[in-house]
Design goal:
Helix content: 25-40%
Distance between the termini: 31 Å
Oligomer: single chain
Largest sheet: 6 strands, parallel
Radius of gyration: 22 Å
Number of domains: 3
CATH superfamily of the largest domain: Mur-like, catalytic domain
CATH topology of the largest domain: UDP-N-acetylmuramoyl-L-alanine:D-glutamate ligase
Number of helices: 16
Length: 455
């Protein structure tokens, strides 16, 4: 990839009245707010959360010149702005404040669109999406590229690693950018008609149907990563994507884990598959495959993604809190021998179908422990399939029940197949709570420090 593809120079933001919709309790709007203030925009940050709920996020923008509207949104802010920056989590087509902005002909954009419009060369961008495995695959690609080209030339961001906007002006024309792109982000990118030079799609299975409305809309959002590629671009497609329209001139399809297996620290065939996809992607950028495979052999993985958190008296406790879909949980469960796993399932209901997971869990898990809003539904399905179920309601009860039942060589797996929002703020908080509870009830030691929430 030697041909630099520049995007048109974006309009200046200096002096423009810009509304940032959603600072977020965990700082999703921090990067864009700081960037806008640095560009000389007149920034209004508006968030329904109250000041006391946003303490950490507000501290991170305390040195910025930004007006605050907390505890509410006001329609007049959106209809009188020069530009609105919508949080990716806000439904783009149905939110009443965004609808009001459109009626007033106020343009709407997003943090990720501001970023890609300012990157020096989209052919040096690897974009990664998928229903499962995208974060690990993104991190693997970044890890392998840093090993090959050095940390100074590689920038990882998007849905993983936080906003790159604040340092976009330091990204050089030969630097490589790896972006994890959620379906929300891609839907916001669709009007820009932008796709990365190397597009990676790990898989597409039903997810976020509560937000997108139907699987077809969700899949269409995912396809944005491919829709605007050209014959000079490259695509890497995971299993089951053979019918997906591709415009890239170079395409690699990874349908199954490699044989022989790659040397990895991470368990499971799905991580073998993630690594194979990552190797194909770095190969599209000219990196040496053997050197990249050697780098991935040292990759320790990401928190909350099949992370072995605690080992106590021969029992291994795995934190896979990021697995919020049935498909992701089935992959995690298959990483272990049948009959050894005590599986924790349940949480917020995103409209997923748990039938196949319940059948697999009934046969593959030693027992299933259910919690949250989806817990009763999952418990009924597992029992119907002949599995052992302990109905717990919440995570603490599940850990107490498990600690009293496990034996040496068993595995405890928090992989809920559900979002966390009914009982936790996010999957990170749920994973940290799991580790803390395991340490408390096994007597293994003090809770490990909680990681800082990712912006």
């Amino acid at each position: 990839m030697t041909t630099q593809v520049k995007t048109p120079q974006p309009a200046s933001l200096a002096g423009r009245r810009v509304v940032v919709m959603g600072l977020g309790r965990f700082g999703g709007g921090i990067g864009v707010t700081r960037f806008l203030a640095g560009q000389g925009a007149r920034v209004l940050v508006t968030d329904r959360a109250k000041e006391q709920e946003l303490t950490q996020s507000l501290a991170a923008i305390a040195d910025c010149s930004a007006e605050l509207r907390l505890g509410e949104h006001r329609e007049s802010d959106f209809t009188t702005a020069d530009l609105v920056i919508a949080s990716p989590a806000v439904p783009l087509h149905t939110d009443p404040y965004l609808q009001a902005a459109r009626r007033a002909d106020v343009p709407i954009t997003s943090e990720i669109r501001l970023l890609v419009e300012r990157l020096p060369d989209r052919t040096k961008v690897v974009g990664v999406t998928g229903s499962a495995g995208k974060s690990t695959t993104t991190a693997m690609i970044g890890h392998a590229l840093v090993s090959a080209y050095g940390a100074g030339r590689v920038h990882v961001g998007g849905n993983l690693g936080g906003s790159l906007l604040e340092r976009v002006e330091t990204i050089g024309p030969d630097d490589l950018i790896v972006l994890e792109l959620s379906s929300f982000m891609l839907e916001h990118l669709a009007p820009a008609r932008w796709s990365p030079g190397v597009a990676v799609v790990t898989n597409i299975t039903p997810n976020h149907l509560d937000w997108h409305g139907c699987f077809e809309a969700y899949a269409a959002a995912k396809r944005v990563i491919l829709d605007h590629q050209t014959a000079d671009d490259a695509a890497v497609l995971g299993p089951g994507l053979g019918q997906m329209p591709v415009h890239a001139g170079r395409v690699v399809r990874v349908e199954r884990p490699p044989t022989p297996s790659l040397a990895l620290l991470l368990p499971g065939g799905h991580n073998q598959l993630n690594a194979a996809v990552a190797l194909a992607a770095v190969g599209m950028l000219g990196a040496d495959r053997d050197a990249a495979a050697k780098a991935l052999a040292e990759f320790a993985g990401l928190p909350h993604r099949l992370q072995m958190a605690v080992e106590h008296e021969g029992v291994r406790y795995y934190n896979d809190s990021k697995a919020t879909t049935p498909e992701a949980t089935m992959l995690a469960l298959e990483s272990f021998e049948p009959g050894v796993a005590h599986l924790i399932l349940g949480g917020y209901d995103k409209g997923s179908d748990f039938t196949e997971l319940a059948q697999k869990a009934a046969k593959h898990a030693q027992a299933v422990y259910t919690l949250g809003l989806t817990g009763p539904k999952i418990a009924d399905l597992v029992e119907k399939a002949g599995g052992t179920v302990v109905r717990c309601g919440n995570l603490e009860k599940a850990v107490i029940e498990i600690v009293g039942r496990v034996h040496r060589d068993d595995v405890v797996l928090l992989s809920t197949a559900s979002a966390s929002w009914d009982q936790f703020t996010n999957y990170e908080q749920r994973g940290a709570a799991f580790i803390e509870l395991v340490l408390r009830y096994t007597g293994e030691g003090s809770p490990i420090p909680k990681e800082k929430p990712r912006p």
